[in-house]
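Format notes (please read before filing issues)

Several people have asked whether sequences and structure tokens are stored in separate files. They are not. Every record keeps both together, in the order shown below: the sequence lines, then the token lines. Line labels are part of the format and must not be stripped during preprocessing.
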Amino acid sequence: MKIALIGFGKMGKIIKSCAVERGHTIDATFDSSNPLTVAALKNIDVAIDFTIPKLAIEHIELCLKANVPLVMGTTGWYEHLDQIEQKVKHSEGSFLWASNFSIGVNLFFELNKKLAQLMNPHLQEYQLQMEEIHHTQKLDAPSGTAISLANDIAANTGYSGYTTVENNKESYFNSPPEFPIFARRIPEVPGTHTIEYSSDIDSIKITHEAKNRIGFALGSVIAAEFLQNKTGLFTMKDVLNIPL
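Then the structure lines:
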């Protein structure tokens, strides 16, 4: 495949390495000094975006206009998801988004849902909290991954949402309707997410810890491979064939 990388910082360079290793070529790169345009996407098979939230919608629209499939790794724009879904359908485009492209994280999503279902009858005895730790360049807090985990908890328990507590970890909140997400930023941390149910007598904790960014990069390339010759809106559930 001929791949365009939208965003060519640390993550973009790792994606390039993974893509080349899998036999693809990087035929265009875009960053703040070389902004994305429709014309520059000519002859590109698929684009992969890891940039910043405020540019996400513009990049999606440009790729749809250029009829180039897009894998979107940027988070922090999900309030526009319904609007984007309609644009993809209207243009008969090809778009795949995920809050996290790591295969391990997507399996962790499923584990989180199952644990939430099991804990739901016991929420009066157990208090819930989540902690997410990322590098200091991470712009959104909580992370897109944490929001996905929180939404899955809300869909499977009596919790209706979450409260964000940034760079702090003072105490547990009480039982439903909301639980805290402690969002911490520490240099050079790729990403750690921990969900804990705690009572006076014990605690149940699950954690996903990324050791580096290779998992995110490799997952995005695998997603790009999946997206070839497809139209519509997809997620990593489709890539990994995880039942809805």
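For reference, the curators noted about this record: The chain has two domains: 2-101+214-240, 103-209. The longest strand covers residues 127-134.
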